[in-house]
Amino acid sequence: MDRTQGQAEPVEQTAAPSVAPAVASAAAGPAAAPAPGPVARIVTLTAGDFTLTVNPVDGSEIEPRRPGTGGTAPAKRDAADRAARDAAARPPALPGPAAPAPPLLAREEERERLVRLLGRGRSVRLTGPAGSGRSALLDAVGADCTGLAPDGVVRLSGYGHQQAGELLHALYAAVYEASAERPERTQLLARVRDIGAIVLLDDLEMGGTALDELLRATPECAYLLAATPDTRAPSDDSHLEEVFLGGLGRADCVELLEAGTGRPLTEEENAWAGDLRFASEGLPLRFVQAAALLRQRDERNQSSAEDDDDEPGVFEERPRDAAFVALPTLAEGAAPAELLASRVSESARAALRIACALGGEMPHHAHLPALVGDTHADAAVAELLGCGLLTPVGTRYRLAAGVVRQLEEAGFADTAAEEARTAARHYAWWTGHASVTPERVASEADAVLAALAGADVVAAVLLARTAAPAFAASRHWEAWERVLRSGAEAARKAGEVAEQAYFHHELGVHALCEGRLDRARAELEASIGLRGALADKRGTVAGRRALALVTDREKAGVEVSPPLRLEPPASASEAVTTVVPAVSKSAPTTPMAAVAAVAAVAAVAPVAPVPAVAPVVPVIGRAQAPTTLSEVFEEAFPLDPKPAVAAPVVPAPLRAAEPRRKPVLLAAAGALTVVVLGTVVSLAMTGSDPETPAGGVGPAASSTPTAGTSGGAGVPGTGGNDPAPDPGTTAPDASEPASPEPGLSPDPNQSQRTPSRKPSSTPPSRTPSSTGPTGTSSNPEPTRSVPTTPPVSTPTPTPTPTSTTPANPSATA
């Protein structure tokens, strides 16, 4: 049967201190009314140096606090306000007659010692296993300590808190009248230092340095910390008193059973209680549950006896004891959750299934009619509490220790996915209702977060969208951050880009209020990018305003953690791989250009190591990556100092790669230097190679002087000032024609030219000298013409015997 059909239309309620009036109409369920969007419930808060406007539609807006507003510590609460605050910190009253609380047995010695230590201003850590009665002892001690401290007794719950920050904010809100302010860390520490109260902190889940931070921040407070043995121990410098809470004795266990059943025990039940005390180590919770088992047994026996009296055939003989229910076994007494759940009402069993789906969190009793589908389901919480299956945690109830595992083994978690989806849809409707105040949503924070964790992506996005503004407005910012992160992940999986942009914007605002500028910049930049893709102008403007505040805080020198966008510099052991373009052998390479490049490299001074983080870095105004050797050297080794300008704001992925830019350029420059040096060496070795390809000195360019070359004043056939050749050297035949080399021009006017060293756009004409027999310079060769087409292969010189004219006609004259 559908749980959301055939029910009345919800009626809006006005604000009230309790959650019950606002959700009394919630039995109608979300299907009875159209699913509304985020209610425009705008709340303005003061968060440190900022004014935060929580806008559920377009995203929260943040701006600097106006001068003259805030900054001063508010007044403390008086005795009447503290009493009302203390009542609000307790679990809500349940419908129906109040059940008698179990007596506090065998705890008088611990109770007196705790009151004595707290009265002296000492802090105590009360350690006991789950179910040992720590919460009941804390209530008794709190009643005895009334009036001992100037700020009274403050009750806090440490369940789910691993850090001291949220507990300090809860303590501040309990003592000061600050309904619309959440101070930043410096203000918070300055104000809680003046609090003098006895703080009862139940369900402590932190220790070590986190606990030391809490104690140092409030030196005028005396703490009574209740924790389990597996909780992290405090440090040696905390100077906490340790009080261990053990189990009850046999007589106390029997007395607790008799108080729970309302009658004395029989001998059989007395023996059974002794065995149970040995198996459970005397934990009071086990005997509260055992008393519930005995009560259920008495009810079943009574109803069975009444049925037997109404049946005909009363004169027939039969054993009367056969109709009675036997005592539970020892195993059932040690793990009674399955047996107890089988004997409660159907609404109570449905509530247990919902609690199993929510990880043990029991929703407020006013939500159960809508979740279960029964208008009388709100009485299930009192029924389960009387059975010992629920235990109070702060302002709510949750399944007792060990009950979740026992119920899961009994099959109560088989429908957990369906129950979680139902709870998520219900809470999405309820948190967005206009009559529900942010404080009521904050009181159901654990159940809302549990429903969010088990919901599908569509329901999770809707629930996170409606619950996040309520958590922000109620100053429950730990839950605000958790629901935003869950909503961003669900929106990413569902493909909801607009919702994903909203969650990233809220995460950036939250990080800015907390002083985490690196996280705020990353989240806001992601939100601006997503909203820019959606053409959301209003959201983009809100994101840019928040990002401008981040930039202002960074320029102001606010001490923050190292930015996440910066990476550590590459170590010397990291290998940098650079792709260097290959040099083609056929490309026209000038030795003088190569020598000039090597000289330029040698002229560059050594580069100092690049610092890890520099506030101002030079920016090279180049539109594209360097492509030539000169551009690479210009970027890697700037010879002319350029004015340092501030680095532009770039996206986070590009910013993360900037520290590695210069090492890559240096490696590229070094690789190109190696290529240049290799080219020079190759050209030097090619000069004496007789098999040099085209473009070099081939076999036709003989180093032996020819008979037809012009001579000077010296020996004929040589240069004007060359010495005479060795007489033993045979001169070549003058009648043999010279084999012209490909690319040579037999121009007689250029026979005496020397190569020009002036750089030009075309390769200069070269007249390489040769070595004569005595090692002197030989006659210059004819001028080499510039080839119009690039050489394709190495041609074989072919002599042309068509002419017997000497290479230089002037020599024959």
Task: Write up what this structure looks like.
With about 800 residues, the protein is an alpha/beta fold. Among the domains are: about 80-90 and about 105-245, P-loop containing nucleotide triphosphate hydrolases (Rossmann fold, 3-Layer(aba) Sandwich); about 250-305 and about 325-330, no CATH class; about 335-415, Arc Repressor Mutant, subunit A (Orthogonal Bundle); about 580-605 and about 625-690, no CATH class. The protein is built from 29 helices and 12 strands. Strands 5-7-8-4-9 form a 5-stranded parallel beta sheet, sandwiched between helices. It is globular. The termini are far apart. About 35% of the residues are buried.
Q: How much strand content do the residues show? A: 5-15%
**How helical, in percent, are the residues?**
40-55%
What oligomeric state is this? single chain
Reading side by side through the largest sheet, how are the strands ordered?
Answer: 5-7-8-4-9
Given this structure, which CATH class of one domain is correct? Alpha Beta
- Mean pLDDT comes to 73
CATH superfamily of one domain: P-loop containing nucleotide triphosphate hydrolases
Largest sheet: 5 strands, parallel
CATH architecture type of one domain:
3-Layer(aba) Sandwich
Rg of Cα set: 45 Å
Low-confidence stretches: 1-37, 314-322, 559-623, 639-660, 688-813
